[in-house]
Amino acid sequence: MHVHVIAGDGDLSICREIRRRVFIEEQGVTEEEEWDGLDERCIHFLALDPHPLGTARMLRTKTGGAKAERVAVVVEARRRGVGAALMRTLEAEAVHLGLAEILLGAQTSALGFYEQLGYEAYGPEFDDARIPHRAMRKALRAPR
To answer: Fewer CB atoms inside 10 Å of the end CB: C or N, the chain?
Structure first.
């Protein structure tokens, strides 16, 4: 499996198709909620082996960090390390850009996954697209 930062509209359309399958079809998120108009401002990641397995995007925050968003793995590739590989690549890109931390809103069913990667939950549970979430964060260290 290989995770790369995507370049070009063709790869972005593959990422969007994964998100459509996972969030819209599987989880019932509306198209209006999923297609939020922020894709053009984000860095996107795509996992392939050789078929598309998962995607994520990173939005830079105004406070010197990053927000991991739209982390999605197709059902047939789950529990195979795809999500962890996406997050490691996203984190490495954030460190490369000199960003201080990564924030994310995790579905409560995925809290354990993110905790295993070093993220800490904070604040109360909240609803996003009718799915319970918790805010999480992880401080990043610059390479030595």
So the answer is: C
d(CA 68, CA 103): 6
Chain Cα centroid distance, residue 121:
16
- Confirm whether 128 is domain-assigned: yes
According to DSSP, the β-strands at 66-73 and 101-107 are parallel
Instruction: Please state the three-class secondary structure of 98-133 as a single string.
Output: CCCEEEEEEEHHHHHHHHHCCCEEEEEEEEECCEEE
Structural domain count of the chain = 1
* Whole-number Å distance between alpha carbons of 104 and 67: 5
pLDDT digits (tens, 9 = 90+) for 36-68: 999 999 999 999 999 999 999 999 998 888 999
The answer to whether the CB of 133 falls within 8 A of the CB of 107 is yes
In a domain, 144, yes or no: no
